[in-house]
Amino acid sequence: MARFILKKLFNLIPILIGTSFITFLLIHLVPGDPAEAYLRLSQIPPTDEAIEHTQKELGLNKPLYIQYFSWLQGALQLDFGDSFTTGEPAKEAFYYLWPTLQLTLSALLLTLLISIPIGIFSAVYKNSFIDQLSRLLAYVGASMPSFWLGFLLLYFFSYKLGLFPSGSRGTISHLVLPSITLCLVYTFTFTRLLRSGILEFMHEPFVMYARSRGLKERVVIGKHVLKNASQPFITAFSMSIGHMLAGTVIVETVFSWPGMGRYFVTAILNRDYPVIQLCVLLMTLIFIIINLIVDIIYAYLDPRIRLKGDQFK
C-alpha cells in the first residue's frame, strides 16, 4: 500500500507543473490587457504611456517563457507574486479557500447522508413509493439549474418563512441553504446509481452463498453487496467533487458567500494573472488529493488494485 501511495504522490509533480503551464498560456490568450484593467481600477486614464509603464512595472513586457519560469521559480518557494489589482500578495487567496472548502465539504456530507440510505432502501424495496419518488426527484434535480434552485430556497425559506439567513457567512444556519443548493443536483442521481449497483449484485452467486449460510439480510447487504456495488458510486462521487468546486461560483454569488469562487471570478474579470494562476493551482491540488483518497479507498475495496500499485519500484 505504501508503494501504491508513493506512486500516486510522485505523479502529482508533472500534473501540477503541466496545469500551471497550460493555465499560464490560456490566461495570456484571453483578450484584454491586465495593465489597462489595473489603470482603470486605479482610476488612471489608460494612455499608451501609462499602459507601457504599467506593463514594465508588472513584468508583462518580458517574453512569455521568462514570465512563466520567473513565476515557477517563485512558486517553488511559495511566493506566487502580487495581485495586479490590490498589490497584496496573491497568497491572499488562501483566506478565501476555507469558506469554499467548508461549503463543498458540507454539501458532500449532505449528499452522502441522503443518497446512501435512500439508495439502499430503493434497491431493497424495489418499485416502492420511496423508489418511485427518488426516481422522480432524480429527474427534477438533474434538470434544475443550481442558481434557480438557490433563488427558490431563498424565496421560501428566507424571505417567506424567515427560517434561514438570506446570505453571507457566519453561523451554521448560513450554511444550510447554500449546501442544499449545491448538493441537491447530485444527491438523487447518486441515489439511482447506488440503487442500480446494489440490484446488479443482489443475485450474484457469492450473495446467494452468504444468504445460504444463514446471515441476516442487513449483513448480506452491508458487508457483501454494498462493498461491491459502491465502486461505481465512489467513482461518480469523486468526479462530482470537481464539479461541486466549480459550482460554488454560482452558489457563492446567489448567497453572497465570501469564498474563492467569487474571488476567482473577480480576478478573471480584472485579468489578475497571479491570482488566477494560484486559484487554478489550488483547485487542481485539491482535486488531485481527493482523487488520491478515492484511489486508496479503491485499493482497500479491490486488492487487485493495491497489488498492481505495489509493483512500483
TrEMBL record:
Residues 97-294 form the ABC transmembrane type-1 domain. InterPro entries: BPD_transp_1_N, MetI-like, MetI-like_sf, Opp2B. It is found in: Cell membrane. Gene3D superfamilies: MetI-like. The chain crosses the membrane at residues 12-30, 103-124, 136-157, 172-194, 233-255, 275-301. GO terms for cellular component: plasma membrane. It is a multi-pass membrane protein. Its main location: membrane. The complex is composed of two ATP-binding proteins (NikD and NikE), two transmembrane proteins (NikB and NikC) and a solute-binding protein (NikA). This is Nickel import system permease protein NikB. It comes from Salibacterium salarium. The lineage of its organism: Bacteria, Bacillati, Bacillota, Bacilli, Bacillales.
